[in-house]
Amino acid sequence: MSRIAYVNGRYQPHRAAAVHIEDRGYQFADGVYEVVPVQRGKLIDEDLHLDRLEFSLGELEIAAPMERRALKLVLREVLRRNGIDRGILYMQVTRGVAPRDHKFPVMARPALVITAKRLKPVPAKYLEEGVGVITLPDLRWKRCDIKTIALLPNVLGKQRAAEEGAYEAWQVDPDGNVTEGTSTNAWIVTKDRKIVTRPLGHEILPGVTRRALLELLQATDFTLEERSFTLDEALAAAEAFLTSSSVYLLPITRIDGRKVGNGKPGEFSKRLRQLYLDHAERQATAA
């Protein structure tokens, strides 16, 4: 089946889909995006993602391209036309097309692009052995809570991780605290069995998988702390893991080449991954 994209009101073959060269996303990274996981053909945590999309648009003063009910219909049509069972749906909204000028254009209409693609299952090796992360200084702008398409520092960090044989790069602020990964949220489990993740603020993206997991934890006997943690604390932790919409949760067993805990995926990481998998499966099989 050929992939189909939605571009500004039209469903087109993916290979032919395009936007104007003066789209402000292309020229200024003046736009936002969302990535929604798809399981059994269903969008997982859809409304949480759409809530975040609306927040990002509001912070950049970009009008919504359509109201939520209509957008949901388009999302489902994109999934249907692409026959996606397990994968991700990507949507991007920019301020639109206008002659190049830094200030907001007066007449431009928001541009909407939606694509979908299948994903391979998470490699068994990642779950059996965990993944590695490297650390680097956080060079991003001061509004990381907005899911903007301006991702160059993240791209450079992810490339650096790949070159060093790691899955992800954790970014570290000037105070020595871990903020987040280049495309994931960061977590640790302390030796006294407390789950720790950085609180929301302008320094990190409010991850949807992060939020859903926090809500799931409220109904368990796990002890949770939303606070900053240092790189040294992470290196001394019993466990570490990451969360994202594309992989849900992966155990981290190496930081900068040093073992986390005993160097193997830990009890908490396994249990929390299953907790989220069960949550996603309930949504995927709901009527």
From TrEMBL:
Pathway listed: Amino-acid biosynthesis; L-leucine biosynthesis; L-leucine from 3-methyl-2-oxobutanoate: step 4/4; Amino-acid biosynthesis; L-isoleucine biosynthesis; L-isoleucine from 2-oxobutanoate: step 4/4; Amino-acid biosynthesis; L-valine biosynthesis; L-valine from pyruvate: step 4/4
Keywords: Amino-acid biosynthesis, Aminotransferase, Branched-chain amino acid biosynthesis, Transferase
One MF term in the entry's GO annotations: D-alanine-2-oxoglutarate aminotransferase activity
Catalyzed reactions per annotation: L-leucine + 2-oxoglutarate = 4-methyl-2-oxopentanoate + L-glutamate; L-isoleucine + 2-oxoglutarate = (S)-3-methyl-2-oxopentanoate + L-glutamate; L-valine + 2-oxoglutarate = 3-methyl-2-oxobutanoate + L-glutamate
EC number, as in UniProt: 2.6.1.42
Coiled-coil stretches: none
Keyword DNA-binding: no
Summary of the function given for this chain in its UniProt record: Acts on leucine, isoleucine and valine.
Family: Belongs to the class-IV pyridoxal-phosphate-dependent aminotransferase family.
Protein name in the entry: Probable branched-chain-amino-acid aminotransferase
Species assigned in the record: Dongia sedimenti
